[in-house]
Amino acid sequence: MRIVQRNGPDARRKLFLGSFVHCKALDELEYLHNAAVAVDKEGTIVAVERECDEVRARETVLPRLGWGEDEVEVVKAREGQFFFPGFIDTHLHASQYPNVGIFGKSTLLDWLNTYTFPLEASLADPARARQVYARVIRKTLSHGTTCAAYYATIDVPSTNLLADLCLAAGQRALVGRVCMDQLSPDYYRDATPESSLAYTRASIAHIRTIDPSLSLIRPIITPRFAPSCSLPLLRQLGALAQETRLPIQTHISENPSEIALVQQLFPPSATGAPDNSYASVYDAAGLLTERTILAHAVHLTDAEADLVAARGAKISHCPCSNSALASGAARVRWLLDRGIVCGLGTDMSGGFSPSVLEAARHAVLVSRHVSFTTAGGNSEREKLSVEEVLFLATRGGAEVVGLEGRVGKFEVGMEWDAQLVGLGVVGEDGGVGGEDEGGNVDVFGWESWPDRVAKWVYNGDDRNTKRVWVRGRLVHERR
Ligand SMILES: O=c1[nH]c(=O)c2nc[nH]c2[nH]1
After folding, report:
1. Domains and CATH numbers, the chain
2. Nearest ligand 1 atom to alpha carbon 350
3. 176 in ligand 1 pocket by Cβ < 6 Å?
4. What's this model's pTM, rounded to 2 decimal places?
5. Is the distance from the beta carbon of residue 289 to the nearest atom of ligand 1 less than 6 Å?
6. C-alpha distances in angstroms, 348 versus 31, 96, 97, 117, 322?
7. Could you tell me which residue ranges the Amidohydrolase-related domain spans (predicted)?
């Protein structure tokens, strides 16, 4: 595995040739075979041509674009390979990466105290933060994650380091300094709402310095979740979001004990909200906006879902985490039916895997569990298809992080955030070339393309992610 470190613009124009698969609609994949996609020096797609082999691309597409042959790098998908949009991880805690898989039988509130806060606090050590953050960026890139909405910790220097490292590695990222000033250990909390605000502003200022156009890295306002934020802090963060128009990320309705805590901590008499629901608490503080990413949303009521929909807030569905911490099964179809935009989150380390593909397959399975308990036992409608979870992993995620129109599909004007996926092509002798060629995914040649993609979703892993690009730059290559 090799990480290609590039800071500056990639000077080469690129011509991608072969099969391209992307989401045309929520439940529909589009397959472009024998196609060509041209990407300019800024990483923007400038041509998508069907039925266009290399000869035709050189004879027609390049002259039309005014590109000389020797200025162009040609990248071809081989037999068994296809280009797919990069994955968008709409919710993960970079600082918790060392704890993936470590949760025992805990549930949310004891898990936070036992496993999570001590680890996050320890990342105030710059050397440790560098080690962890460098690793999580490499790991997620190697699984095809071209954009990640990261929570860091309360520590400003290490949060800023995470942003620096994302920029250096070329991963698109939203980076949030975690705000928390109550119900947290003394060793790991903001002293006052004012200091929390000041530190958050410092981190925002740093990101504006390293990426002034915010084209790759963006700050995101990050109240950890209602229980760990005082009402003044929630309100001040809501005001900051209004002032800066920056995105917001937080957690909502993940676990029944957490919800009971919110109801107890935030009575309507204090918040001024019409009721003490979790969504109303955020809304009363100005935190429920169309730029808000709400992780989990497992136990929302009808009224809360209507409020979330009315405000245009988005949901990050984290099925691996919700199963691991026994939080519950989010009703994604029910959310989608209300017009709520949903994406997928690995939620490391509540979630145990760095892979959005893993989250996608768990989203399918969790939706089947939801179907067992809906409409008397087997509601077809609740089940998410392979096409739908891939939509959540790409275009849905793009909308959740505010990047629709820039990434998530292969169209002229979109940016080339993409992965080259390779499956094992089984020869007549049963061999597949290199040992690792297709990982667990073998194709025999007679499968339809939808079946090949389904095999990838159910059995794929980083061995199938051959190369990854962000804004046209190669950021990961598997050797
Ligand atoms: O899955 C979660 N991970 C966290 O770190 C967290 N903090 C509050 N609520 C949370 N949920």
Report:
1. 2-85+410-477 (2.30.40.10), 87-400 (3.20.20.140)
2. 1
3. no
4. 0.97
5. no
6. 32, 6, 6, 14, 11
7. 84-475
